[in-house]
Amino acid sequence: MELIEVPLHAVAHSRAGDKGNRANLSLMPYDPELWPALAEQVTEARVLALFAHRGATRCTRYDLPLIHAFNFIIDDALEGGVNGSLNLDGHGKSLSFRLLSMTVKVPADKLPRT
Amino acid sequence: MSDLFLVGNGAGFSGDRVDAPIPVVRALVQRGLPAAMFFECLAERTIALAQIEKRRDPDAGYEPMLERLLEPILADCARAGIPILGNFGAANPMAAARCVARLARRLGIPELRIGVVTGDDVSGTVDLSTLAVHEADAGLDMSAWTLVSANAYIGAAPLAGALARGAQVVVAGRTSDPSLAIAPLMHHFGWAEDDWQALALGAACGHLLECGSQVTGGVFWDPGFKDIPDPANIGFPYAEIGRDGSLVVTKPEDTGGLVDLRSVKEQLLYELHDPAAYLTPDVVMDITGVTLEQQGRDRVALRGVKGHARPERLKVTACYEGSWLGEGEVSVAGPNALARARATADVLLQRVKQRGLGRRARADLIGISAVHDSDAGALWRSYDGPEPPEIRIRLAVESATRDDADQASREALAMLCCGTAGTSGARWRVTPRILTRSFLVPREMVPTEVTVREARLWN
């Protein structure tokens, strides 16, 4: 099967939350069969790199295979968090879409929309 | 006693849609099963802002939309025996109770029993310097901060106690959000305070519902990818909880939004860190064994949640007045907008620095990079994409005094004459910054008190 490189947004959805200076980003493929491919490609190191410019220090990924989901915890990604940040989005609630801009390679037949 | 209990949510934060509770209450009444409504109105900083309001006016400091939220539903809930619980007391639960009492008398139900839970405010009773700092907040510099509020996240037991004393409205200040849903379940099913499995079911219910529309399509819809019906009228959620441990999330039939596996997964993981250990004052919830099943339209069943013994200590969040935020914005548009925007941002930062107005400053190029960027502007400075038709430049400055923040924000205003060609649309404002820090406090240091009286007796 041919592999196609797409933004995560084409095959998965995400929601961002916060607690203090930590962000949490969930990630769920629309097609559960893509969960292993995302597990392989959306690594802690790649996600941490997405937030390196904000001074993020650590990324932990929790796997939830029963519901075909991941939960990423990113430390120090919020430049002080909602109370300390100068960012318009102090909660970091828009950061789910930074994650969804990361590209992954998926089999062409797994693309819901082409 | 019914084997099925319904829990509805009427607000997910202070600022939510005020007409949201109406269809939920209508659905609960139509179902005819025992039920309760809860309102979550208290983000981390909301209580500090409320405390500042209370200082100004001793009868203020609770949820400003309280009357507007309850007026359309209070009489129906009272008639149907649906208790209402909320942390809408914020910094002044007694004043909130008086507000509900005035409303009840005006609606002709002076016999309505209103309960108030107090004790969460520990600002005068606990020495914060003796407490352990919550791990997410280690390393914050608190020098020069002035304490505004300190509140413990109290659990479901005192709320359930108010229900046991016949309260039809339970007003609280700081509680953990899921506790507002756990309390009526404890009361109805008679759950013990150490029945971790049952309490975890209640915590799952509360966690899924506490943000209102977030489980029914809010902050979910993504046109062309995750479409929802009628986003202008998203139905707020309610859950069906069975004595057998079943949990189904659904919403009123005549509303927009949806409940499906996608929306429930997003909310299940929202603000959750270790999925094996979601801490509440009542129980530690473990969702690692959870499975979800769509059971027809707008119905999702959750199974497999596990409970572990509750934490020994309660979380206390303290709020401080630390500094001032000055913000100013201007727009540029048309040919060469990107170069003009970059130059504007650099000049604004230079002005703040040379006048010594801020401890920290950042500039955003809204339309290029802002909410995803860093204080240093790493993304907009390195941007090499196409020129956008318009860009809004935002300056944000943290200052030690209100005057410095005001002066910094007015640097954006001054660009109307001193700025690049075609600079327009200046806005500037100053806001106090509320800083928070969380601590852990032994439970016995946070005694709670429950007061229940009829509306006619609250003055």
Automatic annotation (TrEMBL), chain A:
<dbReference type="InterPro" id="IPR056362">
    <property type="entry name" value="AtuA-like_ferredoxin_dom"/>
</dbReference>
<dbReference type="Pfam" id="PF23544">
    <property type="entry name" value="AtuA_ferredoxin"/>
</dbReference>
<protein>
    <recommendedName>
        <fullName>AtuA-like ferredoxin-fold domain-containing protein</fullName>
    </recommendedName>
</protein>
<feature type="domain" description="AtuA-like ferredoxin-fold">
    <location>
        <begin position="6"/>
        <end position="105"/>
    </location>
</feature>
From TrEMBL, chain B:
<feature type="domain" description="Acyclic terpene utilisation N-terminal">
    <location>
        <begin position="7"/>
        <end position="451"/>
    </location>
</feature>
<protein>
    <submittedName>
        <fullName>DUF1446 domain-containing protein</fullName>
    </submittedName>
</protein>
<dbReference type="InterPro" id="IPR010839">
    <property type="entry name" value="AtuA_N"/>
</dbReference>
<dbReference type="Pfam" id="PF07287">
    <property type="entry name" value="AtuA"/>
</dbReference>
